[in-house]
Amino acid sequence: MTTTETTTEGHADDLVLAERRGAVLLITLNEPKRRNALSLGLREALHDRLAEGMEDGAVRAIVLTGAGGTFCAGGDISIMKPGAGIASRDRVERLQRITRLLVGGPKVVVAAVEGHAAGAGLGLAAACDIVVAAETAQFVSAFGRIGLMPDMGALWTLPWRMGPAPTRRMVFLGQAFSGAEAAGNGLADIACPAGAALEVALARAQEIADGPTRAFGLAKSMLARHPASLDTFLRAEADGQGLLFTSDDFAEGQKAFFEKRAPAFKGA
């Protein structure tokens, strides 16, 4: 990729755009009609774009955002099959490759969040090093509505960012945080007026790109070494989420979602 060049090689690549702005790589989730939900195609394209950016010596910082005024609405519920434990575990592990790149990659990643960061989109934002959020943005777990637990490493990144108490409120009580609230509790690092998140994120990423990025990369790897290693956590997460995909509650949660009604969970 060259400076100011947008990569669009083939239809799959249109799902995630990558544009070089000097030493900053801007990655954009590009399915606005679906609120940038993480379909299989989009997540594979996102992984590839991130991997390319992490390996490109000319890229010194990365910005991640979503097109159409929404960061990411989360996983694609239509591809989640109740009872498919092994297949679902594999799907979770493939999604976790993105988390591993965001947390373990050598480049600092700045998220620019407008609209919703929901479900897996919450985990996606929380895995970034710096989160710039519009004051009107909404961060919400959403997994409890369909009988699942947060994934994409969210139960590792959220307590690390804002502490266990707000994390519990998000997971157990369904509490959402606005961008302004998120900046107050550590979920976001910077709050800005609606519509300005990308501009602010690009400016911060340029500051990072102008800095000692090798030192930043090493500091990032040290910051990721808090008590439970990411690898240990992600293996346990995949085991647990794979089990929950076989549960009656997930089947009911998915059915209720499509029928636009409240789910009747039974704890099974």
UniProtKB/TrEMBL annotation:
Signal peptide: none annotated. It holds the Pfam family ECH_1. It comes from the Bacteria. Coiled coil: none annotated. GO terms for molecular function: catalytic activity. Belongs to the enoyl-CoA hydratase/isomerase family. This is Enoyl-CoA hydratase/isomerase family protein. It comes from Xanthobacter tagetidis.
